[in-house]
Amino acid sequence: MYRYGIVVIGYKNEEGIKRLLNALRKADYGDENVKLIISIDKSESDKVLRAAREYQWDFGEKDIVTFEKRLGLRKHVLHCGDYLNFYDLDALAVFEDDTMPSQNFFQFMKASTEKYIKNEHIAGISLYAHCMNFNTKERFIPMTNGADNYFMQCAQSWGQVWFKKQWNEFRTWYKGQENLESNYLIPQHVTGWPETSWLKYHIKYCIVEDKYFVYPYISYSTFFADPGEHVKVQTDEFQVPISNIRVPSE
Q1: CA 121 – CA 163 distance, rounded (Å)
Q2: Which of 118, 122, 131 lies closest to 214, judged by CA?
Q3: Is the pTM for the entire model greater than 0.85?
Q4: To which H or E segment does residue 212 belong?
Q5: Which residues face 40 on adjacent strands?
């Protein structure tokens, strides 16, 4: 029996966090008790905090975490991963406020956790399915093999699941990291991301430590690319079709 949680990462995007919370309310959690953590970085507005306080979560406990000083995106996301330890969770679904899950994301999360949580080669689960190679901006279609998922040495930030043991191993490795310099093993598009990016370090970790993320062929989340710290102009090029097919309970 695994303990599941969801963390919603917020800052100033009031409409985005409302959209995300509304989608989470519509998802199917079966009989599971799921911890919801809404983690809000410090900003000059309290609109996101008000939206979090007004939101009703009917599938378990809800906690709202705020900070006295601004963490910034990189520190905030890494801090959110550490909620696995603080709340004693086995698996944590992670959504930034410009992402949206499908109605059956939790079914994929639960099945993937039961399948891969003890696998030393797996660093996490992607809920997002790429339709584009973000390094070249060319179309990306993975070759199917009759399975439900495939594997890539590429961490995810547009809807992902982290396991406690694997996350702690990444955090131990991360302590020795400074600025991510150009490396022939890692695409220049990734190493060139700003230092506010935590994701490029998780991608490096997968490559140099021979770890993989599990990817679905059909996406269980999508990314709106709302203007924010990394996105200056809104675009729909990263929005993908998502699966809302509910599996009937036995």
Answers
A1: 12
A2: 122
A3: yes
A4: strand 212-216
A5: 10, 66
User: pLDDT tens digits for 63-89?
Assistant: 999 999 999 999 999 999 999 999 999
Q: Is 156 exposed, middle or buried (0-12, 13-18, 19+ CB in 10 A)?
A: buried
Question: Residue 163, by phi and psi: left (phi above 0), alpha (psi -120 to 50) or beta?
Answer: beta
CA distance 83 to 87: 6
Q: How many residues appear in the chain? A: 250
Phi, psi (degrees; rounded to nearest 5) at 101: -85, 160
CA distance 93 to 41: 18
Q: Contact, 13 vs 98, CB < 8 A? A: yes
Q: Give residue-wise pLDDT tens across range 180-191.
A: 777 767 888 888
Query: Token pair for residue 62?
Result: 């809800």
Q: In angstroms, rounded to a whole number, what is the distance separating the alpha carbons of residues 212 and 154? A: 7
